[in-house]
Amino acid sequence: MKLYHGTSLDRGKQILQSLKLKGNNVERVYDKNHMFPTTDGYVFLANLEKAIYYGNITATLRDYNEFLMVFEVDVEESRLLPDLDEIQYTLKNFGVTDVFKDIDNPTVMESLTVCKSVMVSGDILLERGKSRYAKIVSSFVTNVENNYQSYMETKEFVSLIDHDNEYANRFKKEFIDKIHWNIV
């Protein structure tokens, strides 16, 4: 199944050097000191929209990068697990439990449908010639004159992440269609 991982430019360069999305021994954006720590040992994947959203958060609020990176990987469905962190922190903590058949035993499909994300135990190797990545202007731009249009588009895109209406859907589709992909 094709899924995506978003991160900052700095972290993306490290991923390209190692040719892997690391689940272990990686500096977490949401580390153990964070209010909502990410569980170690897992790589978190999402649909493209959500990967861009989280990549932008990492680029702007953590690493102060003018670009974010998104990696497209093809993962065997048998490796996919429900994103228990996302379920706990964004749904259970706020009493949103009726969107799952059994909130304490969510399925991968429920996680993908409701949270738009999943997790995979261990590392994910990037396959040369198969895996892809894109470099996208983040909404943290210090030289706005050179990237103003892209900056505004990314800013608008992330603001529309949870919107499902004609304008939002058209804007997100046009944004995604303009992404230039590179082969690993």
Tell me what the structure shows.
It is a single chain. A 4-stranded antiparallel sheet has the order 1-4-8-9. The chain has a 3-stranded antiparallel sheet with strand order 3-6-5. Helices cover 37% and strands 22% of the residues. The protein is an alpha+beta fold. It contains 6 helices and 9 strands; from the N terminus they run E-H-E-E-H-E-E-H-H-E-E-E-H-H-E. The longest helix has 16 residues, at 144-159. Helix 5 packs across helix 6. The radius of gyration is 16 Å and the shape is globular. It has one domain (2-183).
Notable traits:
4-stranded antiparallel β-sheet, 3-stranded antiparallel β-sheet, 22% strand, 184 residues, 9 strands, alpha+beta
Topology:
Layout: E1 2-8, H1 9-18, E2 20-21, E3 42-46, H2 48-62, E4 67-74, E5 80-82, H3 84-90, H4 108-115, E6 117-121, E7 124-125, E8 132-137, H5 144-159, H6 166-177, E9 182-183
Antiparallel strand pairs: 1-4, 2-7, 3-6, 4-8, 5-6, 8-9
Helix pairs in contact: 5-6
In short:
This protein is an alpha+beta fold and 184 residues long. It has helices at residues 9-18, 48-62, 84-90, 108-115, 144-159, 166-177, and strands spanning 2-8, 20-21, 42-46, 67-74, 80-82, 117-121, 124-125, 132-137, 182-183.
